[in-house]
Amino acid sequence: MDTTTDTRPTRVDKKVNPAYNLGMKFGKILRMLRGKTGVGIKTLAPELGVSYSYLSKLENDEVGPSEQLVSRVAHYFDEDRDQLLLSAGKIPDDILNILRDNPEEAINFLRKRFGTPRDRP
Description:
- The protein is mainly α.
- It has 7 helices and no strands.
């Protein structure tokens, strides 16, 4: 295939293009990170200050993580904290403050920029 005319986005290393986890839930990302690094659940749990049964529940989406645990996971695996927060269904504090301080402008900007009109089903 002639790559000079290929306009599809190229997926690259996660540090350059973190598209590897778009749409993934926190538990699945945690399991993937453990698998990539070869860290067992019983080894990781005390490093994060939780039980291995709790980590298992996280990985199976039976429970959600606290913001503090997400921060510890991000630090341990050298991952982007904000992306992990979003995967856990949490909004980073600075983004939440922007939304609270500028609700109408922020909502209009996001809808215009990302094409999500109100009347879309």
